[in-house]
Amino acid sequence: MHKLLAILLTLAVTSGVLSFRYLAEIGILKDYVTLKTSDKLTVEERLEQFGTAATVRLALHFQQADVPFPPAAIALLAFKDSKRLELYASNRQGAWRYVRHYPIQAASGAPGPKLREGDRQVPEGIYGVEYLNPNSLFHVSMKLSYPNAFDLAMAQAEGRADPGSDIMIHGKAKSIGCLAMGDAAAEELFALTAWVGKENVRVVIAPTDFRLNGSKPDLTNLPAWADRLYQQLRAELIQYPGENIPHPPTATTAYNTPPP
C-alpha cells in the first residue's frame, strides 16, 4: 500500500494533474494506509475513549430540550442547501423535540437524489442506520440504509443496475458522497446511536428544509419521480418542530417505524 501511494504521487506529478481534488484523494489513501496498520477498536472501546466527553457536550442541549438523556430515539435531519444537520430526540410523551444542530463540514455533489455508484451524490430520502464503524477511515462512522425500497424501485424502473452503496455519516471534513461532520460531531452522533440502538435512529436527507420552503427546489435534470420523493420528505419533516418552527399540535411519531 505504501508503494501504491508513492506510485500515485509520482504519476500525479509527472502527468501534471496534481489538482486539489487529486491531492484530497491521495490524502484519503494515506489515511487508509494508516488505518490498515493500526489496531482495531470495538464500539465499546470507542465509547470509553470519547463517550464521557460527548455526554458532557450533549447534556445541556438535552436539558434545554426537556428530553431525558440518553433518549429513547433520535432523528437526524440533513439539509443540503444550508449544510446543516439537526438532531431531534423523543421526549417522555414520544414527541420529537429539537436538541441541537451541527454544520455539515463537507458533502460532495449537488441538490438532487443519488442515482448511481460513482456519481458522488449524497442521497435524498428517509433512512435507518445499518451499523456503526468504530474503525472508519474518517474517524468513526454510521452506515445508512441506502438504497432504501424507494431508491431500489426507482432504479429498477429506470434500468439502473447499480444505484450505489456505502453512504455514511462520518468524521473529518472530506466527503465522497457522504456527510462529513468533523470528529467531535461524529463522536456525539456515534455515541448517541450506540446508546439508543441503531433501530431507534431515523435519518432524513433533503435538498432543502421543506418546513421553511414548501416549493420544489429550482433544479434542472431532476428525475420524473423527484416530486414523489419530495412529497414524502415534506410529510416526514412536518413531524419535527425546528429551532425556529412551532411545535405541531400532534408531534408524535412511532420512532421505531422503519424507513420506506
Automatic annotation (TrEMBL):
InterPro entries: LD_TPept_cat_dom, Transpep_catalytic_dom. One of its GO terms (biological process) is peptidoglycan biosynthetic process. Coiled coil: none annotated. This is ErfK/YbiS/YcfS/YnhG family protein. It comes from the Bacteria. The active site is at H170 (proton donor/acceptor), C178 (nucleophile). GO terms for molecular function: carboxypeptidase activity; transferase activity. Keywords: Cell shape, Cell wall biogenesis/degradation, Peptidoglycan synthesis, Transferase.
